[in-house]
Amino acid sequence: MIDIAAINKDKHLFVDASLPLITVYDDYYYFSNDYDVLSHGQRNYLINYFTKQGFVQTSGRVLTLDGWRLEFIKPNRLLAQSSFQPAFIDKESDRCYLITPTGYAQAIFYQHQVSSADTAISEKAFNLFKALIDKCPFNLQWLKDVHINTDLAPIINANFNLLNDYQAQVIEEKFKNKRPL
Fold this sequence. Notes:
By secondary structure, this protein is an alpha/beta fold. The protein contains six helices and six strands; from the N terminus they run αββαββββαααα. It has a six-stranded mixed β-sheet with strand order 1-2-6-5-4-3, sandwiched between helices. Helix 3 packs antiparallel against helix 4 (123-135) and helix 4 (123-135) packs across helix 6 (153-175). The two termini are 27 Å apart.
């Protein structure tokens, strides 16, 4: 079993019980923390953290322990397209995906999207976005750009300013002097 509370005690890692995803902070400038590719520093941080927890790296993309699999996702070959997989919102699995903060945010949008016509996010979703931003700011503009012609576009566009304003405030208060991994 993955200990969510222990993971969230780490100052760089974020996980929520509602999604089979774990993300890691890199930087708030997004130079190396782009849409779906973890930076070298992020990958190493995750590997080091989980091997200390008893996980064994069984391949370049997989760490295992007691039937649990942590998987680094394969980036989309066309990096300007989504790498979203329905498994990213299926919490009934023994797999957990290691993903960028932007990929995590995308999964939150998919998880809480009722229909393409409904652009409101619930208080629960907003609180999850806030928790993610408080620990791992994400590239909201890139997420918006990648989904310009998808079903997520209306919900992202409708909530862009709210999330962007909150994230700008958090970055100014907490991340201005934080160094990348």
